[in-house]
Design brief:
about 375 residues; Arc Repressor Mutant, subunit A; alpha/beta; 5-stranded mixed sheet; about 20% strand; Nucleotidyltransferase, domain 5; 3 domains
């Protein structure tokens, strides 16, 4: 790492300590902050000056009322509760979701809005800006001092340049664009705290995607396609896939594929709700389809786990939420597929977060930017 990178990392660490102290103790003078974080007055003055200029903290009062003796009253600093510092945006197929975090990394506002599936990128960005304005007006949150914007998109990162520019121009902040499912994987990894560094995430929905968190870092891959489990072959020579191949996992385990399999088996199910209802009644066709899907997912995920050796495997999407037996069955398949020697097997669980996971993951990606994680992916102004 360069000397400049080391200095930036040290400064960011000091900033994080100052913000944590203010979050835990409320309004404090610079002298009190310096004592609690163990920094010199000079260093502390530089850091608080920068935080004030960015709008992360504000002066709320002085200690004149409690001060004994003479001397100039000291200003009391606190986190600005209305200053958004990090903005996460998830531009999904049919809706946009946003989340806003303050300087202490706490979520202070969120919202969502729908649009038709055929909506173009320009219109989706416009819908995001309208939603951001509406959330700001409703909550009083300001976006004038944003340190970064993370934008999650459905599909590959092909839209990254055309999306980064309008967000960068609107907010005058660095912008990171990536797949929203990969962002969701990073958000899920962070729910287990700082000790879980290697996570394999797969989401089963209308399509199938995923993400890889390695060493605490979200991996995009050379072409931005890392974690595309949906297009791994699950049934050689199987049904044609929209990608041009045959037998991809998406043709077996996506929600539309599950519903088609039930219909072919003589149990017409038009929605995932009907499928879950059939499962709860113990309908043999639904149970068989669930078992087949779990087996296919288990084999694909096991192959990736043998190569990557993750500490944890997280399964997201409606099947994982609505059919607990599904995750247990995948775990059984993994137990039989993984190598029986060397180390502990990965923990397996259903995803914990809801539909805002992509926006939260976009913010998480901004948090993870540091000189140590240089290059994920390069922020654009």
């Amino acid at each position: 790492m360069s000397v400049q990178g080391v200095h930036a990392l040290v400064r960011r660490t000091h900033e994080a300590r100052v913000l944590r102290v203010l979050r835990e103790h409320g309004a404090l003078s610079r002298g009190q902050i310096a004592i609690k974080v163990g920094l010199s007055r000079t260093t502390l003055s530089e850091i608080t000056g920068d935080l004030l200029s960015r709008g992360a903290v504000v002066v709320v009062d002085t200690d004149a009322a409690k001060r004994a003796g003479s001397g100039r009253p000291a200003e009391l600093l606190t986190l600005d509760p209305s200053s958004g510092q990090f903005l996460g945006v998830d531009l999904g197929h049919t809706r946009v979701r946003i989340a806003v975090a303050d300087a202490a990394h706490d979520i202070i506002a969120s919202g969502h809005a729908a649009y038709p599936a055929e909506t173009g990128w320009e219109e989706r960005v416009a819908a995001a800006f309208t939603l951001i304005d509406r959330v700001g007006a409703r909550t009083g949150v300001s976006f004038r001092a944003l340190q970064g914007v993370g934008v999650g998109v459905a599909g590959p990162r092909a839209a990254a340049p055309e999306l980064a520019q309008p967000f960068g121009e609107r907010f005058a902040a660095p912008v990171v664009v990536d797949n929203n499912t990969r962002f969701a994987g990073l958000a899920e990894a962070m729910t287990d705290g700082p000790d879980v560094h290697d996570v394999l995430y797969i989401r089963l929905a209308d399509g199938i995607g995923g993400g890889l968190v390695v060493g605490g870092r979200l991996v995009a891959g050379a072409s931005g396609l890392a974690g595309e489990f949906g297009h791994v072959t699950a049934q050689p020579g199987g049904e044609p896939c929209r990608c041009g191949k045959r037998g991809c996992l998406e043709t077996v385990a996506s929600i539309p594929a599950v519903l088609r399999s039930c219909t072919k088996g003589g149990l017409p199910t038009a929605t995932i709700d009907e499928f879950e209802s059939a499962l709860s009644r113990g309908e043999p066709v639904a149970v068989r389809v669930l078992d087949e899907v779990a087996a296919a997912v288990g084999r694909v995920v096991a192959s990736a786990a043998v190569v990557l050796d993750p500490a944890q495997i997280v399964i997201g999407g409606r099947l994982a939420r609505g059919a607990p037996a599904f995750v247990r069955r995948v775990e059984e398949i993994l137990a039989g597929e993984l190598c029986p020697v060397g180390g502990a097997r990965p923990a397996i669980r259903a995803a914990r977060l809801g539909d805002d996971d992509g926006a939260l993951g976009a913010i998480a990606a901004l948090f993870r930017q540091s000189p140590l994680l240089d290059g994920y992916p390069e922020p654009a102004r």
